[in-house]
Every structure is written in structure tokens, then in C-alpha cells.
Design goal:
Number of helices: 11
CATH class of the largest domain: Mainly Beta
Helix content: 10-25%
Largest sheet: 16 strands, antiparallel
CATH superfamily of the largest domain: membrane protein fhac: a member of the omp85/tpsb transporter family
CATH architecture of the largest domain: Beta Barrel
Strand content: 35-45%
Strand order of the largest sheet: 20-21-22-23-24-25-26-27-28-29-30-31-32-33-34-35
Oligomer: single chain
Structural class: alpha+beta
Radius of gyration: 36 Å
Number of domains: 5
Number of strands: 35
Shape: elongated
Amino acid sequence: MAITLKELYKLGYFENIEAYTRFTENGIDLVFVFKELPVVQKIEFEGNKAFSDEELLKEIGIETEGRAETGKILPFATVGPELARRLSTLKKGLGRVFSVDEINQIIMKIKKVYEKEGYYNVKVSYYFKGNTLVFKIDEGEKAYIDKIIINGNKHLSDREIKSVMEIKERNLFFLRFHPRFDRDVLYEDLEAIKQLYIDKGFLEVEIDEPIVELKEGEKYIITINIEEGPRYRIKKVELKNNIYYTDEELFSLMKKPLKPGMFYDGKLIRNFQKVISDKYAELGFIFANVKVEKLIDRKKKEVIVDFNINPGTRFYVDKINISGNYESRDYVIRREIRLAPGDLFLRDKLMRSYSRLYGLGFYDMVNFQPQVKSEKDMDLNVQVAERFTGQISLGAGYSQLTGFSLFGSIRKGNFLGTGDTLGISLSIGSEYRNNEISYLHKWAFYKPVDLGFSIYDRRVDYGTFISTRQGVSTNVSYEFKEYWRTGVGLSAVKGKYSNIQDAAPDYIKRQAGSYYLYSIYTYINRNSVDNPIMPTRGTDFTLTFKTGTGTWDFYKFVFNATAYFPDKYFHTDFVFSFRLRYGYMEKINKEVPIDELFFVGGDFTIRGFDYGMAGPYDTNLNPLGSKQQIVLNYQLSHPVVERFLWAYAFTDMGKGFDRGNPLSDLFYSVGVGIKLITPMAPIDIYYGKVLNAPEGISDSRLGFVLGTFF
């Protein structure tokens, strides 16, 4: 009978079941008396002030709409027609019987909701009001974590231990006024602390059950007692099944090697494990598995670390499938992928394909998903998420000089999904003009050749003078080797500086009137940067030579080098960036044109200065430009929100000058900034402070850059 009652209770739909025997003329009758739980048509809450009824219903996950059968008959059991009918009409949400177990689970969920918000000693009971299930809540008081006490830690500091914990104690400096207590998170933190000790070589560390005390009715005091145990040293490091490299080749890849006698270092071991996997992936073993095995000698407190390598199978590319490109044509993506059907699947070619696709600037996300097809073949599924590649600007203006004017511009990258770029600027007004059309055609003649041209007509009133320019330019470039590109360009310009006032810059006064200029330039570039918007590794070197003649003449050299270094020593997410620019120009027989001078200072050179003020300037504090420049930028960046927000600190140095030692009398600035990655374009906001600005020159600046700099 006990078994029968137990099985009936398992149905979960009876509040009470009684069974007794009754003697009759025909023998013994077994009688069951059931007290059914009511069918719940509504759920209500009493005493809830911190959370609304809707919030609690959402948290406990009860559906208020929809019907689905959930009743079931026990295996090998038979029931009467009435019970069968009831079981067949039960629903997921309301309008059904809630078992005692389910009600208790709901109570636990309600308590969990309150605990996450810092409420302790929450009491929840229930009762039925007809077909309404009522949960009566005593919320109790809200408390916060006031202090975390660590005991027994002799080798690791409190700060180091607390740094791996999600739970934090109150700290007004860090704006943690009422940090919440969550018991589940606390137990996860204990595992993190244990892993921290193991990574440091304390393989026998023990952590007691945490002591949680409530003081003054609102302050949690958490005490964590640690027994560190002995610290183990590495006795030997061995590589097993390393058949494609010598042991020395792999060990040499570690900047901080694993050596016998050093303390066990779990973080360093995991890093070496990844290094081995990556190295084998370069040979096509993309699923190489490296298992770490520890042989522990508890008497000598030593450990032998074995890296057991299972290379797996090398695969070849079968098909390349592309998805997510609602605008880009498939060939725009395929021509940048460095793997083709039939190729050996190599990790370095896969990573280079990432860089090239991101380098187009058309995609917010690029994802490669290898899919095994047979023992040696796999398909490569390429998924992209396209970013907005168009820019539209519209505006209107009025001045006594120019009158009313309307102007607008459109720039469209990935024009018609071809990878080309189209730019159009138009203006309608009495005098103001900014009309231009430009086009860049990628992969001309089905070769890595880019062709571009631009035609423009501009008139701008700068207040103290008016500049008009009409010009045409054309260029061609060729990628002659992976990472390498060279190009040549021609331009012809006709212009005029007019309406020059006394306050105009001296260089404008010096070159007043009409002019014309014809120029040619050539360059060579090597670029291995992984992502132009969020770079983390790679280098970019460019050497440019330009010469021109006409009303003025000149020749000009510019060297630009940028490098990005991810932190490989401490294996953090920090990225160090360095940029060097040096430029030199001189006249041939005449005077150099203003537009070819170097203006050092401002957003793109030495931050903290106003534009051009890190070079020569006139008595009215107008920048004059210089014939030489040297600029060095150092920057340390770290992601705050991955793929969206970066923070950075920088120091800049350099100057614009006409003659003398390039490295003497440099200007220095320091600052901090943030970089936001938006669908339109990256945005830089920074504050720069010049440490040795000339007297009378502004020594600080809050900068805003739409686009990208470093």
C-alpha cells in the first residue's frame, strides 16, 4: 500500500491521500480518499513592494496564455476515466493543477529574485483562495556586502584574491555603495580562488565553507578561510607525440619558458598548450588536441608536466559557402579569402582572410566556420554582418558674402555591392561651392589593381581670405605580393587666394593671387594590420615620394610606420601601438605650395595642440606650416566592451620645423581617450595635455574625431 500511495503522490495533483481497509461480506475493500489540489486560474502576490506582480510572474516563468497537455499516466499504470480526463486537459500555464513540488520550486525562484537584489531572510508561504494561488511574501530587509575577510593567505595578498572574485565589498572610491550578495556567485568565487592557488602551484589548497554574517541588520561580513598547503615545483616538462617539430622549436616560442625548479604555473602551462595547438594548426592540423597531464610527487612536492599531443587529421577545403551578405556580391568576399577549393586548410591563411575582409571596412563581423565533410575534406562557411557604408551630409547656410546656399554630399563604399567607392558632393548657392565626384574601382581587369579618379570645384570663405580650387586627379595601384602594394597618381590644380585681409595668415598673403600646379606621386606600402577599425596586431609601412611644378614647385618624401603589439607576455587584452612619421620637402627652383607644407599639432599628430600649432606660427597665432615634420605616437589600449568600446592612454611627441636637428626641442603631450565603434564610423573622444607648450599657446584640448586615427 505504501508503494501505491507513493506513486499516486508522484502524480503531484493531490494535496492529501488517505487509504484504509474495510471488511465486507465479500472480503476486504481497499478505500482511497483523495483531497485534490484546486485548478489554478490565477496567481496573486501579497507583501511584494520591491517587485511588481508582472516582474515576479515573469521570473517564475508561468505562462498566462496558451494551452498544452502536460498530464501523463505512470508507466504500467491504469486509471479510471475521470482521472484520465483530468490528466488529459492539464495546461502549461494557468488553468491547471500545480503540484506541491512545483509550488515549492516557485517559492525558491521568488526567494532567488529577492536575494539577487540584496534582500536577506525572505519568507514566502502560500495558500489557496478558491482557484487563486496566493504567494504571501515577507521581504525582510535589504543588505549589502560591507567587508570580505580572507584568512590563512600567506603567499597571496588579499587584493590578488579579491581580484578574481565577482562578489565585491563596499568601496566608495569605486562607486560600490551597496554591492549585492548572491550565495551562488560566492561559491563560484571560491572555485576561482582555488584555481588561482592551483595556478600558483598550491596543488593541495583547501578552502573552508564561507562564513556569512549579518551585522547591524544590513551589512554582510564574509569570511573565507584558506589553507594554502605546500607549493609545488616543476620537476620536468615533457612533450609526447611531438612528431612534426623538435622540442626545442616549440619551447623557443615561449618568452617565459617552463623550466625545472620553477614553481608550477598553471597560466603559463595553458598558454604553452595554446602555443602548441596554434603551431600545429599552421601545418593544417586545425583540430590538434594538446592534453596536459600532471604526475604529482606529494612527498617531494614536485610535479612532472606532460604535454600529450594528438595532431589529428589534416583537411582540405572542398566548398566555400558565403552567407549574410545582403549587399556585397559573393565575388567581393571570395577574392579576399586566401583559401580556395582543393587547398590544404591552413590556419595562417584563414587568419589572413579575416584581416583582408575586415580591411575592406564593409563588415562589422566576419566568422569562419569549418564543417567536416569527410575524413579529409571540409567545407568553409563564411558568415558576414555588413556595416553601414554610406555617408550622407546635408546643410544650408547664409552670409552677406556668399548669400544663401544649399550643400550636400554622398559617399558610398561598396557601391552596388561591387567593393567600389563612389563619392558625390554638390552645392547650390551664390558663391559657396563644394562640388566633387570621385570613384575608386577595385580589382580592375580581374586583377588586384585599383583605379581611381576625382574631379572637384571648391570655393571656401575662411573669413580672412577666400580660396577657390578646381582640379582633377587619377591614380592606379597594384598589389604585387601578399601584404605589399604600390601605386602612382597624377593631379592638376588651378586655384586662387583672394579677398585677403590684414589678419590673414602670412603664408596666404605671400601666395596671393592665381596659381596652377601639376604633381605626380608614387608610393610603396606593406600592411599586415588585422583590422583597420579595431587593430590588435600587425604593421603598416608606407614610403611616398611626390613632386610638382607650376606656379610653385617642390619635391617631398614622407615615411609613415605603424605597429600594433598585443600583450603576449602577461597574456592580457592590452594592445600597445606605436607610430612614426617623418616628412621632408623642399622647393626645386620656386617656392613650395602652401597645401604641401606639414601642419603638426591637432587630432592626427600631437594631441593637445590646436591644428598646426606644434610648428611655426605668425604673430596672429596662425599656423604657417613647415618643410619638415617628425611625429611619434605611443598608445596603450584596452577593450572595455568587446567590439564596441575601447579605452586608451597616449603620449605624443614631435614638431614641425624647417631646419635643424629632428630630435631636439620636441614637444610632448599626454592624455587619455575612448574609442566607440558605431555603425556609421568609429568615434574618438580624448583629452590631451601638452607638457611644454610655448608661451601663449593653448596647452590642452578636448578632441573629437569621427573616423579613425591610430
